[in-house]
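The aim of this short unit is practical: by the end, you should be able to scan a pair of folded records and say something sensible about each. We start with the first protein, listed as its amino acid sequence and then its structure tokens.
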Amino acid sequence: MKYIDKKLTIENTKIQNIAYKFGTPVYCYSFSQLKQNIINFKRSFQSFSPIICFSIKSNSNLNLLREIGKLGLGADVVSMGELMLAVKAGIKPKKIVFSGVGKTSNEISYAIDRKILLINAESISEIKEIERIAKSKKRKVKIGIRLNPNTDANTLNQISTGKKDDKFGVNKKSFIKVIEYCKDSKNLELECLSVHIGSQILDYRPYEKMLKVVDNIIKKIDFKFKYIDLGGGMGIPYNKNSKKLNYTKYNSIIKKFLKKNKSKIIFEPGRSIIGNAGILISKVIYIKNSERKCFIILDAGMNDLMRPALYGANHRILPSIKNSKMSKKIYEFVGPICESTDKFSTLTKFQELKEKDFIAICDTGAYGMSLSSNYNIRPKVTELLIKKSKIKVIRKRQKYKDLI
């Protein structure tokens, strides 16, 4: 995104024109940004050429998944629905990994039938269920085991997944027992050690600690894994003051690890691929003054973008047209939902806005539309893909008659 003649654009298309033509709220994605993110990610780790499985939970738009698949990525799925979507998007089963703590028997059976790369199991009970289903199908199933490394990712508690009190994976003691169980099974082929410590990580050091734990446990069990799945979690800067994850140092740490452990690396990035490729365009419905601040009431609500209400996340907000008049009051950007948490940002410095102006909420490509809902019986919004100034509707706005 950039300003051209004081007008905000995405791939040289004016935000204001998009809003007028397609209505608001509306999600827009930049194809060139998405493509560049994938190129940059591949370059960062080109010395060992990992298998890159896009995390579908971050954005599940079928058209975007097709583009991501064409650019060479596989898929990380956490439900049968996501697996079905990945297959429909044309992603090859041998580039799909199935994660998650609560896979049902139906989901496991479906994954086995699709012959995907790996089912990453997270408990001994799940492993026994995979074995039972595999035996009934007279199949040998390739699995991974997710280790809980008890590593603090130094991120939000709500998106931490690698500490001992988190529900994900098995601890070191249980991990060793699971290895022995799998060795004796005729229907399980253990190929992968999986680990994932959290999301929105901006410091390489938690990854360094995680890899030390993985290295130590591999030494103890004396078992060679074909794959080491390092998950995802790579963060993006949501504001100007945020630091960026040092991919060069993370790459060096992994290369050092691979000198001792000859395995193929799997990554499961989501946010780092799609996060900054998306924006949410919204219209100012009303401006309401109070004693301390000024409420900028938008037509987008927490049902459209849940992250601020769910995590306290803060997204940059930009006006569609720049002006030089600064507001003398604090601006609080809020939505129309009947909840006090339906607010996006409180800013002490922002240009003056008028009712019916348009704004863009930035970096909403990940966990924006995928977390949206019909709360307050509000239709889900239109999604657009902007590709070389061509606009393609990749999801139509829901209609009230479809909801009621």
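Turning to the second protein, read its sequence before its tokens, just as you did above.
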Amino acid sequence: MRALNPVLLGGRELLPLIEGGKGISITNGFSAGAWAAAGGVGTFSGVNADTFDDGGRPVAQVYHGRTRRERHEELLAYAIRGAINQARIAYEVAGGEGRINMNVLWEMAAAERVLHGVLEGAKGLISGITCGAGMPYRLAEIAARYRVYYYPIISSARAFSALWKRAYHRFAEWMGAVVYEDPWLAGGHNGISNREDPQKPESPLPRVAALRRSMCEAGLGRTPIVMAGGVWFLREWEEWIDNPELGPVAFQFGTRPLLTKESPIPEAWKQKLLSLNEGDVLLHPFSPTGFYSSAVRNSFLRELEARNAREVAYASVPEPGRECALAVGARGRIVYVGAADKARAEKWIALGFSDALRTPDSTLIFVTPAKAREIHTDQINCMGCLSQCRFSNWAQQPPHSTGKKADPRSFCIQKTLQAIAHGADLDMNLMFAGHNAFRFALDPFYSNGFIPTVRQLVHRILTGD
């Protein structure tokens, strides 16, 4: 394999290896600091990061507010305090080596307030901000204010051009790199647009070449592009290294760093990664953000698939195609559906899925009474973890509602990610992973259940494997 040459990242020549940021305590200061100490860019998550007590145990994020707005303010305080805590840990662990980035989602709750709070409270500790899940137009301005580099996460040249023309051209000197995240292979939330088919993945090389052409037109021919999503063995990406069409390239690893000694995920999660098979990761549309995302297809996702399959269109009064009366709910309220849908609905009701929940799209989904109570409770307990949430209809802008009916086809992402990160049932919670996670079981590096340190993993990656 061709030798990897250093790339200028965050104002310093480093190994072109970046730890991908993963939210809700899945990448923290210990893992990010270890990655930086090995010579690359370590990335901790700034999404509801943990704080620790004097014994090193995570402090539970308990909410006392009676209203969503009150709980929202509590959540922001936790987020800012936790991210500052993780920045300090990462800085100390790195020991002056590499660079430390913080990853945030633009669609997370009050992203701008969190960025200002963390960057003010962690001055000198963070060198860069990576940010995706939306169009973060204000990212460059905020980064420049605090004199840190920004790394926008995009999935197409078109998205980059929109960001550049609207905002980024005024802050070019603080652009650390542009992260191209493959929308079909990356774990977590993916940037598949309405123009793209989730079932028809496209090769990343021509898409990144198009991105480089757009960057060259903007005078960014030497600004690195970070390839994220689907990267496992670097020897499989050899044609990308020193490729004049692509220019400077770095590689981001999101899934492989999960399985290291420093990774904060529970031990049961690490063992589960060693046993995944190809196809066990599902690209799905159920996230309350409205984005597609990739996660292990466990019982949690299978229930969402089944819940969404038990869906029929309805009308409040008879209309063409929906003329059959159907009694739903404990009160037997009448709605009107098509003949075929009535037969399906009656079958589901007979199987115990007797509660019909209304969606924003004039449809009903059928769930058990227990699931209906769980959905309702989760919606009531919303603390506004997103800028807007289709599951609870929260929006951070007044009047703090999306104006739509809460959507029971989705789920509370804060609840499940906090649960799995802190040791809850892996099968019954959302387990983000990239689509190459099955390779843990096939890669001889992990034979006999071997779990490397971050430094051992970086050294392994540098060999091409």
